[in-house]
Amino acid sequence: MFIKRNFIFSMLITVIFITLCAVYYKQQNQKYTADGFIHKATHYFKNEEYIKAIRYYRKIISMGETDEKTYINAATALIRTGYYEKAVELLQQMEKDLPPSSEMYYLLAYSHYLKIINSVNKKDFIVPIEYLKKSIELDPRNKLSYKFLGSIYERKRQFEYARQWYKKASLEDIDNSCEFYGFIANTYFKQRRFEEAMNYYEKALKENKNYISAYYNIAEIYKEESNFEKSEEYYKKAIEISPDYIYPYYQIGNLYFENNEFTTAIEWYKKALNIEPNEETVNFYIGIAYKQLNEKEKAIEYLQKAAYCGNDDALRELKELSGNVL
Amino acid sequence: MFYKHKLLFFIIHLVFCMFLFYFINQQFILVGIFSNFVVDLFILFISVIIVSYILSKTATLFYIVFAKLTKLKTYKRFIFWLLFTTLCYILDFIIFAAAIEY
């Protein structure tokens, strides 16, 4: 009798408990609205609090509020927090729930790509390539997809394929498509086909005179060909467009350094330091230039600065020069 | 509860843990601590049992002392089991309430 009564009573308590949980769940859900979650998710996403944003995006998706932006933002947040596998799962779910879009395929390609390069067993990039091709098929003006596809082919050292896609992009009505001439030129540059590279850099500059990378790379080509005057000319053109970037000053300094014109090299290196005073490599080369000019004290001064900024070569030089390193 | 059907109680508790796991998964999956269903379900199941066991054992000790002082008949096994099962349900509810909170 006791056993039967106990069992009935226990079952009753269990049923009451389950009912209580269901009522509580319904009550809690009633106070939540999709708009409220979207607002919170967007707020966290904009503030780069991606983990919190993902919680709310998942809840929004589970409530059936499946629009493209929610999926895209959730996938982007997952990618930025390093959860590439989960980003792939989410985007594959999006593929089932919504009509396909160029951006979706781009993100799928990106997630797969990141998964591959972060994995121990490096696989081929066939999957991201296929997704990028689908992305371009849906939107032939998707600049990012062309760029990414080209960069994957470049990484595989299949420069001809990369060029094919960059050329296709340059023919589409895309903003600032002259950039693609620059990418084509870069592929030739990597293959040390300087004449073809030069042609495309000059094409890029005809369309956009402020395309600064083209000036740098043309200067690099002239430097490779030991035409230092021309190289300096193009670095100076780059400085005219963007005077607050350290790179061209440093490179001009290197040109004079390689020509053993150490005084002029130091002048240009110091111009670079005006922009970034703690640049370790520039400080190091100033130190070496002063060493070549037999100005030991100044050499030590700059080498010490380079060493403090983390330059290991500077430590070796200081040991040679003075014995007492720091 | 389920004094003569202890196995049934553990089965019911395991089923509750599966539902809890689903809701916790929604919230905390990215932290990485809830990524393996079997292992994490087992951890959840055992955690609730251990905490309830400790608390109910402690409470039972107090009951035994009280019963001896007042010279009442002790039903220590029944009282322990009753406390244990009740605490399991209470803990399940607390975890559930936290897991559905946004």
SSE map:
The complex is a heterodimer of chains A (326) and B (102).
Chain A: H1 2-30, H2 34-46, H3 50-62, H4 68-80, H5 84-97, H6 102-117, H7 126-138, H8 143-155, H9 159-171, H10 178-190, H11 194-207, H12 212-224, H13 228-241, H14 246-258, H15 262-275, H16 280-292, H17 296-308, H18 312-322
Helix pairs in contact in A: 2-3, 3-4, 4-5, 4-6, 5-6, 6-7, 7-8, 8-9, 9-10, 10-11, 11-12, 12-13, 13-14, 14-15, 15-16, 16-17, 17-18
Chain B: H1 6-28, H2 37-69, H3 76-99
Helix pairs in contact in B: 1-2, 1-3, 2-3
In a nutshell, what does this entry contain?
The complex is a heterodimer of chains A (326) and B (102). Chain A has 326 residues and is mainly alpha-helical. Chain A has 18 helices and no strands.
Global structural class of chain B: mainly alpha
Overall body shape of chain A? elongated
**Fourth-level CATH superfamily of the domain at 34-122 in chain A:** Tetratricopeptide repeat domain
CATH topology name of the domain at 34-122 in chain A, in short, is Serine Threonine Protein Phosphatase 5, Tetratricopeptide repeat
Please indicate the percent range of residues of chain B in DSSP E strands (runs of 2 or more): under 5%
Biggest interface between chains: A-B, 27 and 20 residues
Order of helices and strands of chain A: HHHHHHHHHHHHHHHHHH
What is the averaged pLDDT score of chain B? 84
Helix content of chain B: over 70%
Describe what this molecule looks like in 3D:
The complex is a heterodimer of chains A (326) and B (102). Chain A is built from 18 helices and no strands. Chain A has helices at 2-30, 34-46, 50-62, 68-80, 84-97, 102-117, 126-138, 143-155, 159-171, 178-190, 194-207, 212-224, 228-241, 246-258, 262-275, 280-292, 296-308, 312-322. In chain A, helix 9 (159-171) packs antiparallel against helix 10. The mean pLDDT of chain A is 90. Chain B has a domain at 61-102. Chain B is an all-alpha fold. The mean pLDDT of chain B is 84. In chain B, 78% of the residues lie in helices and 0% in strands. Chain B is elongated and about 50 Å long. Chain A binds chain B through residues 3, 6-7, 9-10, 13-14, 17, 20-21, 24-25, 28-29, 32, 37, 51, 54-56, 58-59, 62, 78, 81, 83, 86, and chain B through 1-5, 9, 12, 26-27, 29-31, 85, 89, 93, 96-97, 100-102.
